[in-house]
Amino acid sequence: MADETRQGEHRGGRAYIGSFTSAGGRGVVAASVDHRTGTLTVTGASDAVTDPSFLVPAPGGGVLYAVSETEEGAVAAFDVTGPAPRLLGPPAPVGGAHPTHLALAHGHALTANYGSGSVSALPLGPGGAPHPAVEVLRHHGTGPDPERQEGPHAHQVVPAPGGRWVLSVDLGTDSVHVSALDPATGGLTAHDETPLRPGSGPRHLAFHPAGSHVYVLAELAPTLTVCRWDPGAGALDPVEEPVVLPTDAEAVSHPSGIVAAPDGRFLWAAVRGDDTIAVLALDETREEPRIVTTVPCGGHWPRDLALDPWGRRLYVANERSGDVTWFDIDPTTGVPSPAGSLEVPAASCVAFA
């Protein structure tokens, strides 16, 4: 196995798959990536942390961070220099419930805590291990859906290009919050809040590679809000809200993840229920995404999607069918075509290093 692992890494890179241990998942799954075919080959796994649903590799790839999406909420660090992830000390509490997303900025791990509607900052030690949260910034507000929007539900946290601002997407308040992170202390200061359409339930966003626009994907409605981004003012300006499904789509759908092409020409969105990947083309203004097509995701309930490091393939974590599927992307049309799959029970995300 060691020789095969080294050979696989020479041909490609490393991928990490999060999964829900409470639903039969193996925890954090490590795999080699063959850059010629996109094939994933599992090299090891760790169930040392409960429900590691979202993963982020550290720059350099030697350490991998995971949220523990539990009521207590924690961030764990893994040494991933070997075939199987190895836990680096005890997970650190985030001071919030059910963290669903994680990002790294200025020597801190940032989490979006869905259950408590807050964003946390945890300092990272010299060896990469996280310390308990030093800041928890709570969102406030509700939305019109009494079951899903009875309070704030922070679903994603994303540092803006340049590192000055942090954006957090809140499904419960129908808004995107902007805050400032103090690199020295981990302090978070609320700066601005952009309201989106009531009841849309924003879930995830993606920056255009040029940093000029932000695309906010809703979960409670199959729509995408296009926003201009002003990095000086730290403010979003919504300008358009196209749909991400054809008008004749019949399934009850809940979009989940969104990624932008490295060249800024396409967006891809995963849509649960309809179980498709929506392909949207961007024009020169970057403000009028147009649906090119939708393609089957290759499984059921696509919770997350990610591009490989070369920008040639799209990987989808299908939670309920328990697999990761990958697609070759046509560089001209942006349309993905099925290329392979790997069984991963209760898969929740894919990350590359």
Computed CA radius of gyration, to the nearest angstrom: 19 Å
Helix content: under 10%
Q: Write down how many β-strands occur, each being a DSSP E stretch of 2 or more residues.
A: 29
Terminus-to-terminus distance: 20 Å
Sketch the major β-sheet: 5 strands, antiparallel
Poorly predicted ranges (pLDDT <50, ≥5 residues)? 1-10
Q: Give the overall pLDDT as a whole number.
A: 95
Structural class: mainly beta
N-to-C SSE series?
HEEEEEEEEEEEEEEEEEEEEEEEEEEEEE
User: What is the approximate shape?
Assistant: globular
Strand content: over 45%
- Quickly count the helices: 1
Structure description:
The chain has 353 residues and is mainly beta. Helices cover 3% and strands 50% of the residues. Strands 4, 5, 6, 7 and 8 form a 5-stranded antiparallel sheet that branches. The protein has a 4-stranded antiparallel sheet with strand order 3-2-1-29. A 4-stranded antiparallel sheet has the order 9-10-11-12, with no helix packed on it. It starts with a helix and ends with a strand. The model is unreliable at 1-10 (pLDDT under 50).
Keywords:
1 helix; mainly beta; 353 residues; 3% helix; five-stranded antiparallel sheet; globular; 29 strands
Short recap of the structure:
It is built from one helix and 29 strands.
SSE topology sketch:
Elements (H helix, E strand, L loop, with lengths): L1 H10 E8 L8 E7 L5 E7 L8 E3 L5 E6 L5 E6 L6 E2 L4 E2 L5 E7 L2 E6 L4 E6 L11 E4 L15 E6 L5 E6 L4 E7 L6 E8 L6 E6 L5 E6 L5 E7 L4 E6 L13 E7 L5 E7 L3 E6 L8 E7 L5 E6 L5 E6 L4 E7 L6 E8 L3 E6 L1
Antiparallel strand pairs: 1-2, 1-29, 2-3, 4-5, 5-6, 6-7, 6-8, 9-10, 10-11, 11-12, 13-14, 14-15, 15-16, 17-18, 18-19, 19-20, 21-22, 22-23, 23-24, 25-26, 26-27, 27-28
